[in-house]
Design brief:
The chain is built from 4 helices and no strands. The protein is mainly alpha-helical. The protein has one domain (10-78).
Amino acid sequence: MVQNIINLEEHEDRVISIVKAKHGLRSKSEAIALITKAYEENFLEPELRPEYLKKLERLKKEKGIPFKNIKELRKIIEG
């Protein structure tokens, strides 16, 4: 566990206290952990699973059907 000393404005401290009370948490540390987890899930890019990366590599190697425009693609698809 890492410990930090942080400086917060009064409003930010109130927000943390509200999160703590709303979720029934025991400490402001738990509230900050909850806030950072929510931020991570909503705003940071997720890490890709290794099996998905392998699938992407396989798909990159596959050859596609060449076409010049939508009409030509539609002809290929519809026969």
